Amino acid sequence: MFTEAQLYSPVTKGADGDVTVHLSDEHPGVHDPEYRTRRNAIAALALDFRPSGPVPQIAYTAEEQEVWRIVSVELARKRDKYASREVIDAAGRLDLPSDHIPQLDEVTSKLVPLTGFQYVPAAGLVPLRQFFGSFKERTFHSTQYIRHHSAPLYTPEPDAVHEILGHANQLASPRFAAVYETVGAAVARIETERALKFLADVFWFSMEFGVLREAGEVRCYGAGLLSSFGEIEEFRQAELRPLDIHDMGTIAYDITHYQPILYCADSVGQIEDVVGGFFDTMTDDTVASLLAAQHA
Fold first, then answer.
1. Is the sign of the CA dihedral 63, 65, 71, 73 positive or negative?
2. CB contact at 8 A, 220 and 235
3. Would you call 86 a catalytic residue per the annotation?
4. Where are the alpha helices (H) located in 83-173, listed in sequence order?
5. How far is CA 22 from the centre of its chain?
6. Is 167 a residue of the active site?
7. DSSP 8-state secondary structure symbol assigned to residue 238
8. Which of the residues 148, 227, 228, 231 is marked catalytic?
9. Which of 162, 163, 173, 181 is catalytic?
10. Does residue 27 have an active-site annotation?
């Protein structure tokens, strides 16, 4: 994502072909040589991937599998308590394993019959146009690494837990998958970087951190909330505002803290109409008009 780019650990490839993931000084695994070597190897496999070739299979360690088991069980409990019915039902149909980390082709085999989405590997940050644009072909670029075992319920960067337990459970809903596809179609129409940033920010406040009212309660549907052990407990404390595309695309926010402002829909239908409707028709000109109105 445009802003989430700050969270991905940079990945570089040297002249000798060696791949290095540059963890921040605050990363739980920064002082663990074994973890760092592991991250480099997984990133190298993703960089070598070609669309015509097989998806890399990761030989996950016992520690990594245990992290998945812990997080999968805990997030499932929180999903049942706090998520929207659309997500809960979609997750039930997708039926991701809790006893092992699914390979990306396993995620694809479960998603394709439901919504046609397929998963392909990413070493880290994917260029915005490629990441969002691939939604048009119902393709999702996903990392394959797992957070450090010392902090299974925390990660400073998007990992396979976020990409799979967050996004895949959302993408298993035909209604939400259709919204993603409109994002990809919009990317094919827009040319300016400002419009691309606007699209990314609206996506952030909807498909990443979206909430809605359901049966008298506020529940979440955004992948960022669905995959965050801490924030899924706190989102109801945020200031809730009605869906407003202009505000969602222009408000300043800090991605390193729980979001103090969230945009709340009245129903999944309103998400489709307002958010999906915007993506379905957005152009460079419509974004320019929205931004001009901000300064009028």
1. negative
2. yes
3. no
4. 85-94, 104-115, 128-133, 160, 169-171
5. 21
6. yes
7. S
8. 227
9. 162
10. no
**Residue 185 neighbours by CB distance under 10 Å:** 16
Write the pLDDT tens digit of every residue in 55-79. 999 999 999 999 999 999 999 999 9
Measured CA to CA, the distance from residue 35 to residue 240 in angstroms comes to 39
User: Cα–chain-centroid distance for residue 10?
Assistant: 17
Rounded distance between C-alpha atoms, residue 246 and residue 259, angstroms: 18
pTM equals: 0.94
Residues in CB range of 96: below 8 A, 6 or more apart: 72, 102, 107, 110, 164, 165, 168, 169
- Is 246 a residue of the active site? no
For 229-267, how does the pLDDT look when each residue is reduced to its tens digit (9 = 90+)? Answer: 999 999 999 999 999 999 999 998 887 788 999 999 999
The overall longest dimension of the chain from CA atoms, in Å, is 59
CA 51 to chain centre: 21
